[in-house]
Structures
1.
Amino acid sequence: MGDRSTRFLWPVLGLPAMVWIALFFLVPLYVVLCVSFGTVDPIFRSPVPIWNPLEWQFTQVGVVWDRLVGPDNFYLPAVLRTLLYVVIAVVSCLIIAFPVAYFTARYAGKYKGLVLALLVAPFFISYMMRMLAWINLLQPDGLVNSIITLGGTVPLDINWLSGNPYTVVMGLIYGYVPYMLLPLFAALDRISPSLLEAARDLGASGFDLFRRVVLPMSLPGIVAGTLLISLPMMGDYFTSDMLSKSPNTAMIGNLINLSIATPGQSGQAGALLILVLLVLLIPMILYTRSNARAEVRS
Amino acid sequence: MAPSPQPRRPVSRRRLLQTSALALPAAWALGACAREQPLSGPTGAESSAASSASGSAAPSPSETGIPIASPQNPVKWPINPGNEPIASDLEPEANATLRLYNYPDYVWNRVLKGFQEEYKDYNVTVELSTFNDLPEALTKIRTGSVPYDVAFLTYNYLGRLVYGDLIRPLNHSYIPKISDAWDEFQNPWYDLEWQYTVPYTVYTTGIGWRNDLIPEDIGARPNPYDVFWDSKYAGEIAVLDDDREVIGMTILRDGGTDVNTADPAVLGATRDAMLEMLSLSQPRVTITGYTDIPEGVLSLSQCWSGDMITGQYYLPEGVDPSVLRYWSPPTGQGLIGNDFLCLPKGGENPVLAHHFLNYMLTNDVALENFSWVGYQPPMKSLSPDTMVADGWVPENLAAAVVKPEWFQVGYPLLELPPAVEAEYQAIWQQFKAGA
């Protein structure tokens, strides 16, 4: 009797989510595919999707491929630049977030929740508003320069907003650091204090404790945080648009955004998007598999 | 107790085929949802799905049947059957919401409130929506999702708007104030006999800067455009976020005059010059020079003339407005253009929309709007020779005043054949990719 009732219970409970995914992920993804393998209206230059996969055309994907790895590979610098920015930003986020998460998990005691909420509170404000705030702070006569130059007494002429790569990377770090903090905290909070004490009792130094106990046990959090922030960073266009506006800091997201905004090139935007998606699927699959293996082991 | 996991059922071949079969109706449904809007132009040009990757395989306008207007080839657009102008002497719609579609910050709210006040007997509400660029505007007007009554556009897309049956022709009897506009715009080359449009603003494209940050007379250089290739100003300067404007400026800098060229050699040289600019001066790409230059975020930028006039109001406290400068070729032989107002066909209040066009061409209204947007209306009452003396434009920005005769010698950015447009886009993408 119980079996019969639960046989339908879980599928029914899961149905809304499945419908949601089908409507708002699978269908849009299929539309993007149809646009990428479609054609262009000759007059209005708008995309003409081809809905039947048997009739798909590969010209738009071919153009994007040529621009990535062909002789006319002017997309490649932006791709390499994006990878570099993402690696630097992810490592920086990890370096910033790890001690904070460790402190919160181990030493914040009963104020753990409060500390965490305060750390994340600035990020309740929308990403766009925070970037706009940074634009004000980083103006030549803004607060940041006022502090650095001690109110103008030190003659330093720094224009943060002149299209610098470091401003973009800083924006990425600032924008995404809480999404690294939360999974790290979750992983570190799960480590039993008695385990740490046992390691200490067995003679582990502080460094050994970190290297042989804390780090391995927080690895799922590190991997989750890294994936959680690197995936959206790969498609980020807003940070460079807001804080730099320079072609010299253009990322893949900027190329996609430009193609979408250019008449007749939505198909190329879709093709670029799919290529990025395929590349990003690899770490996602690896992560899922490693998680599954870890579950089996435990 | 946790429920025992359900045994995983392997996907059989039959099941896979069943699932795949489900995808076919889905594809059909999506296809049916797609809106096909065949063109209804008199030539019978139809919107076919021609294959085009970068657009280079797309047919030229002669194939599409849409002529390309230019000063040398003025065009009188057809009036499509069923899209005749509204009748004369109709009363404006009462209790109406007049929907405007415009760039942000490109019309003064006070002017719109003035219209509401003037037509208060009809209980009119004006609602303003904005777009970021013309492709976005065209797409939205085409979908017809919002019944815009008035759109603020430029002539790059006029042919498509007419042949797509997306705008309605004007009944001139409602717009007597057109006589107050410059003569050039009472019979413009892009819309002979102003069948579909009335002028809104005129502008040149030039160079704006703050001379306290760049204490150099840019206009005194043998070739002022060279400033964008000057590594001395690396990181301090910007070009407009507009492919046509930057490519056009580069062509002029290299001694060309055809800013709409299809010559592959010229376009190749232009691309190389733009990439050289990128490495030498590392320009930013933005259309917010009107705030960035006054605020000192940029020292110098390619910009439109109206940007510098309105830029005075964005200067930080304590900065003298006289530091702003603008240069465009003093002979008028530079990039020049104008925007216009037109009436999307889907608008629900065509009579009121006609009244609005007439209202915007009223001298006092046009001048009031100019005082806020900074873009010059082509009105006879606003004499370019006296705009500085009359206090409309400060002395240091006298070069931002547009003269009617410049439209005889300036270089407008025209609509391009799709294949050429695709070449321009490829150059722009390479430039913006920082390659």
2.
Amino acid sequence: MSTTTATTYETVIGLEVHAQLATRSKMFCGCATTFGAPPNSQTCPICQGMPGTLPVINRRAVEFAVRTALAFECRVNESCRFARKHYYYPDMPKNYQISQYEEPLAEDGALDVDLAGGTRHIRIQRLHLEEDVGKLVHEGDFADAQSSLVDYNRSGMPLMETVSHPDLRSPEEAAAYLKAFRAVLLFIGVCDGNMEEGSLRCDANVSLRRHGATELGTKVEIKNLNSFRNVQHALEYEVVRQTRALEAGERIVQETRLFDPDRGATRSMRSKEYAHDYRYFPEPDLVPLKLDPAWVAGIRAALPELPRAQRQRFVSQYGLPAYDAGILTQSRALAEYYETAARGHANPKAISNWIMTELLRELGGDDESAVTRSPVSPAHLASLVSLIDDGTISGKIAKDVFARMLGSGEDPAAIVRREGLTQVADAGALQALVDQAIAANPKAVADFKSGKTVAAKALVGQVMKASGGKANPAMVDRLIQEKLSRT
Amino acid sequence: MVSRTRAAGFGAEVKRRIMLGTYALSAGYHDAYYGQAQKVRTLVRQDFERAFERVDGLAAPTTPGVAFRHGEKADPLAMYMNDVYTVPASMTGLPAVSVPCGFSAAGLPIGLQLIGRTLDEATLLRAAHAYEQATPWRARHPSLA
């Protein structure tokens, strides 16, 4: 299948990413935006769409959108306009969504995505602001629900839509783009990036065309992909489905499809003839939004170092593999954590290993709230690595110490001192344990003498066990080798 | 329930306007009607701006005729035509005011419309006030038979 696709058809994908902006109040009213509040507790006549109410633009949301636009190297329009997008659904009380249409906030940007095969330059078409809709809660399954309830807490939340050009060429590229996109949002602090809670959602447009063709094929839109996995799986399914259809001589129908993660398949939601006619027109309740160039310049000046630049710096400055640098720069909080620990440290790679394997597993996330909750401070992690490097404790003991640090947040040096975990590197003290191990394991000794040198490993293990893991393994190994070759 | 409520609750003119607006904004007609109307409005506005280079205000009738009897005009188009003199100021966002300026042979009041520059309500209201002070019409009332 994939070989056919690779030879006959080229996959063309464009993504529309919706990001909820991390403002304290909603896009057009003063309601709070806390996730998980009791249903309809964060609503007012404006976000409930009551007649006679008037929207007021949230300055912070505009600032966040401008910051994002600048991070993606977009042209920020000096003047932009809001528009009414009409459709009829109970989760949207006004029967129109305030969005932007003809004059968006920003246009013509790009995001460079690093992939195994090199860097891809993905162009961004436009970035605009809009309001989110409410949420329907169905009683039981959607298909046979007897009633549905509406929660308007999400109604009017600030939403930023960023539309890429159809520059992505595979499902993996699409997932990589979304990851890089999310990393930028987290870095500049405009979105919490929580895909499970719906803070970041994505629609994908996908079509196939014969290699070398310049015109785009008929596209299919896949709605509401809420994880990197779903984006990739839904697109993989769709590429296979469209390839089969084209090879069978069928035409692709322009339609909207929905991905069912449980079945790993997409299904038709509505075809072109039932496509919405949004009947856009300029929002008469809001005057065109004019941005002061000095204000925009100030936002540009305050932009932090972006993930890609930071990733490249981590490789050159700390000698990290690109893989490590990629993981550590997934969020600004994690990158800062790493730098605090690694700056001036003799072994930055070991610190990276500890973060990637032990710390991230325990934190359950790489976002700011997860990282700032870390009971292990960067300084303590750095000193744990130093304790291993200078031979004070073994790597094995270090894991126990780390577990204690997670529980108590203590300095590893204090734990090692109190618990007497200092590695035994005193040949005299270890010699007795080595003698005992050799005396107790005649079979291992015989194996060793008959040429099975690996048998020495078993003896090292015995000594380590007897020392409670505190023996210096290299020294134990040397003592055993010496003893066995002498007898 | 939604369609029944609306069918019963909205009058003929409201329904007509909803249909017209929906049609004018629909895909395929948006540019021909809504887009075109916006362009025409800009031209009308520019026309007013040219006039205001030479004058501070414009005077015009408020309506094409005096008040008609309730239900006398059943034709919606005739109703729209009745608004023809006030629509330009409304569409172009210019301030306008109507003051009494006389009576018909049958004794029905006639309005004079004054139109001013954008956001220049002050000049407009001063002019309207001066006209009222200089004429006797504001003090006369039609007989309500």
